[in-house]
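Much of the work behind modern protein science is quiet bookkeeping, done one molecule at a time. The fold becomes a row of whole numbers, each drawn from a learned catalogue of backbone shapes. The protein below has been through that process, and both of its lines are reproduced in full.
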Amino acid sequence: MPQISMTVNGRAVSGEVEGRTLLSTFLRDHLSLTGTHVGCDTGQCGACVVHVDGVAVKSCNMLAAEASGSSVGTIEGQAAADGTLNALQQAFQDHHGLQCGFCTPGMVMSAAALLKDNPRPSEAEVRAHLEGNLCRCTGYHNIVKAVLAASGQDVSGIAAE
């Protein structure tokens, strides 16, 4: 079995994995980072989004060995060390951008990638960027509102759909 090593949330990690081990499986089963959710195993739902070398990827579509040598960021790495939520996580809470919470880690990670590349996206840009993330509970409106709020934009005039 191949030995892999990577940096996850700023910490060097390594492990022995089968060649077919998915990055999502490595994170969840080998590192106990269960915030990365697996909803479909086919890359359609986006619940498993993590950042690999700063790029949002669906970790159920990537082999752990492919991430060897990379820097991986998960939802667990978004908050401060003392547990304080970052601005995006706080906006999700403040604007009720979550319900059951299953899709939330992937939504937050996808939105964080968007805000890194586009610090003040339009509502249409947020909606387009999150098209690869499925939510069965919220109807997306409050998720979009949360992302816009996290970007520092006034969301008081955004009407409910």
In short: The radius of gyration is 16 Å.
